[in-house]
Design a protein that fits this description.
The chain is an alpha+beta fold. It folds into two domains: 2-94, no CATH class; 100-278, Glutaredoxin, CATH 3.40.30. 38% of the residues lie in helices and 24% in strands. The strands form two sheets. Strands 1, 2, 3, 4, 5 and 6 form a six-stranded antiparallel β-sheet that branches. Strands 7-9-8-10-11 form a five-stranded mixed β-sheet. Helix 4 runs antiparallel to helix 5 (184-194), helix 4 (167-180) runs parallel beside helix 6 and helix 6 runs antiparallel to helix 7. The chain starts with a strand and ends with a helix.
Length: 279
């Protein structure tokens, strides 16, 4: 096991409250001291789980909530609760991105390309995001033309609600389209980015319904799904998954687990070729 850790430190020994096992209160006190937070911060510490990557240590997920947003970190804690590692753990015999792959849920997600393709690209995207619109022709055009049998693309929702007021509603509608017709999702994806500048929070649903009618979807069923927000839980799960993976902006791509931002086609092609050669 080869360990690469960004930070390795020992818990302070408290004279009156020394612990012999993991203790959340002691752990939180130490984290607040290490991080030197400016302003109020709420900390939620998950229960320890045995680490698959570092024998003898437990994984402890910690959620930090600030006025400006949230952040998640993962710590590895020794069985006696006295030693902490923050960083990445690698096994030379496995992909260095296995940790990300283990967290990515690809079941019943919009995708194109062969399911058994040697390269899988997962996009966390926002349908109102201009950068995602710029990335879309790369994924839908260049990529499909160059690697029709070697690359699979999976889309996961990550609406940036603080700056994009209709992104969540668009994601819910997209999931409703996907429920009704899986292939129609990609027509919606393309239509959304082609018409992004004309869409507003007020006209989104009417434009979606017009598009659905033109593409022969059941508009009554689709309208009911959108009105009841029947797919919102699916969107929320993708957002939570993205946050756990450290996604903060869009587009965020995971190429065979390697996290990378939006990139131009020549760079994406280089990364894909590296993955193909490795395999």
């Amino acid at each position: 096991m080869k360990l690469i850790a960004a930070l390795l430190f020992s818990l302070l020994t408290f004279a009156q409250t020394q612990k012999t096992a993991f203790d959340k209160a002691t752990f939180e006190t130490y984290l607040r001291y290490v991080e030197l937070f400016q302003g109020p911060v709420d900390i939620k510490i998950e229960d320890p789980k045995a680490s698959k990557y570092l024998p003898g240590f437990s994984e402890v997920a910690v959620h930090f909530s600030f006025d400006s947003g949230t952040r998640e970190k993962l710590y590895y804690v020794s069985q006696d609760g006295q030693n902490i590692i923050q960083g990445d753990v690698f096994n030379i015999a496995r992909t260095p991105f296995q940790f990300n792959l283990d967290k990515l849920n690809l079941q019943d997600q919009p995708s194109f390309g062969p399911a058994n393709a040697p390269v899988t690209i997962v996009e966390f995207g926002d349908l109102q995001c201009p950068s995602c619109r710029a990335e879309a022709p790369v994924l839908r055009g260049d990529l499909r033309e160059a690697y029709p049998e070697k690359v699979r693309v999976v889309f996961k929702d990550f609406p940036l609600e603080s700056i994009h007021p209709w992104a969540r509603a668009a994601a819910i509608a997209a999931r409703c389209v996907y429920r009704q017709d899986k292939q129609a999702f990609w027509k919606y994806y393309d239509w959304d980015y082609d018409n992004q500048e004309q869409i507003t929070p007020e006209n989104l649903q009417s434009k979606v319904m017009d598009w659905a009618g033109a593409n022969k979807l059941d508009t009554v069923q689709l309208g009911r799904c959108i009105d009841t927000k029947a797919t919102e839980a699916e969107v929320n799960r993708n957002i939570a998954e993205g946050r756990e993976l450290g996604v903060t902006g869009t587009p965020s791509l995971f190429i065979n687990g390697r996290k990378i931002g939006g990139i131009p086609w020549p760079v994406m092609q280089q990364v894909i070729e590296i993955e193909l050669k490795r395999q």
